[in-house]
Amino acid sequence: MTAETGLSVTLFDDREQSDRHDAPLAVRMRPRSVGEVVGQHAALAEGSPLRSLLTGGDRGAVSVVLWGPPGTGKTTLATLVSRESGRVFTELSAVTAGVKDVRVVIEEARDRLRLQQQGTVLFVDEVHRFSKSQQDALLPAVENGWVTLIAATTENPSFSVIAPLLSRSIVVTLQPLTDADIESVLRRAIENDRGLSGSVTVTDEALDFLVRISAGDARRGLTALDAASAGVGTGGVVGLPTVESAVQHAAVRYDKDGDQHYDVVSAFIKSVRGSDPDAALHYLARMLEAGEDPRFVARRLMILASEDIGMADSSVLQTATAAAQAIAMVGMPEARIILAHATVHAALAPKSNAVYRGIDAAIADVRAGRIGTVPMHLRDAHYPGAASLGHGHSYVYPHDVPGGVAQADYLPDPLRDARYYFPTEHGTEARWGDIARRLAERRLGRNENPDSQVGENPEA
User: Fold this and answer.
1) What is the pLDDT of residue 14?
2) ω before 333 within 30° of 0 (cis)?
3) Which helix H or strand E contains 259, and what residues bound it?
4) CA-CA distance, 355 to 352, in Å (whole number)?
5) Which side of the chain, N or C, has fewer Cβ within a 10 Å radius?
6) Spatial CA neighbour of 276 closest among 351, 352, 356, 353
7) Which residues contact 327 (CB under 8 A, 6 or more apart)?
């Protein structure tokens, strides 16, 4: 890699790096074949474009956008494509390379293909950091097959990659590695000759902690293992205190599949519901430090936004949904800030479970058989013969009535007296146009004189 351009051009120097005994453990353990790749079963399924590239299949110079969080193997997959296909591996840094650097690489790749009949794998990490003009500069090489472009991004390519480049590439979504995947990677590193060669013993407690702090990122787990093993030396035992010292923070006692998982999650939800942002942030921190999937936390916040806040502040659901979408693009550790934002908003918002109680009460009636038929004036009237059946007759179009509220029977007869939604006096639910008063007036009118609540709309 040159200091001026941030450009790296190699054939198989990743293998040379991984053979060095003093190379970082994560580098030494980088997979050298498809069989060593852990996880990504969907992306590497038989017959998939990526699998074909990795096994030397005849896919021409197809280009690929690898989308996924850090540590899921994007760089590894790119180097494997280079090795398996015999193409030269060229890497551009989206942080330091400019349009001029892109054009130089493309010119070299074109000459290499023309003069030596050798293709080039051009790996662009963090392609979302490339400007439009930089991405435009890649188009000729992709269109003409001068390079096999493998672009990696942690952000949704639909928003971060220009449409012309995206339309000429196959998007492959990579998933965070599971705990089982991470454990497999770590155990291999402990025993494999390229790794620690069994020179240290790692306790189950320490291994469990390494898995949790990895949070789906194999590189993070291997780096922590590397530091911990260096601290005990050959023949030593890597225990929990050693790993804690290596990563410079204490292990959180938290079993993702046991009681502690449910206790901490419950405490988190109840703290938000109880409007205590400090307690909520504490339990959020415990979950994240224990390696909890941030997407799980985001899903719980979305549910809470409707179950415990609802109409008292509808914007909390928007915040929680936006947080779930954002962390899918950003990943950890930055996702912690987004989740904290949504957590504090939810904790400080006024609370109402009126929507939650309303839908459950309505479902209970339906399950109990209290259904009835749809009133005639509410039935679909937009088909031949509907008028002769009385469908839509006497329907009052609300927009033709002053105030936009038409007094009519909307519930089936057996449910005419039913009430499901009881708005509270909290937050927006109380302020929004006197919802409770207007509902009471409508319900009173509906029950006292049902015959006066329907009229005829000639346009229905």
Assistant:
1) 45
2) yes
3) helix 259-273
4) 8
5) N
6) 351
7) 294, 295, 298, 335, 338, 339
Given a contact cutoff of 8 angstroms between Cβ atoms, the answer to whether 56 and 222 are in contact is no
Q: Are 225 and 202 in contact (CB under 8 A)?
A: yes
Q: Mean pLDDT of residues grouped by 10 in the chain (460 residues)?
A: 40 47 85 86 84 65 84 87 87 83 93 92 90 90 92 86 91 88 94 92 93 84 91 90 80 57 86 93 88 87 95 94 89 90 95 91 85 75 53 66 71 80 79 58 51 35
3-state class of 277 per DSSP? Answer: helix
| Stated pTM of the model | 0.54
Measure the CA–CA gap between 3 and 89, rounded to whole angstroms.
18
For 407, other C-beta atoms within 10 Å of its C-beta total: 17
Residues 6 or more apart whose CB falls under 8 angstroms from that of 122 comprise 90, 91, 92, 105, 106, 109, 138, 141, 147, 148, 149, 150
| 89/245 Cα distance (integer angstroms) | 38
How far apart, in whole angstroms, are the C-alpha atoms of residue 304 and residue 320? 9
Tokens matching residue 54: 């990795």
Tokens of 339: 């989740």
- The single-letter DSSP state of residue 93 is E
Two structure tokens written together for 199: 């020179």
Cβ neighbours, 10 Å, residue 292? 21
Contact assessment for residue 349 and residue 309, using Cβ atoms and an 8 Å cutoff: yes
Contacts of 220 (CB under 8 A, 6+ apart): 70, 71, 213, 214
**Element holding 212 (H helix, E strand):** helix 204-214
- Report d(CA 272, CA 339) in Å as an integer: 13
Task: Give the DSSP H/E element, type plus range, for residue 10.
Answer: strand 7-10
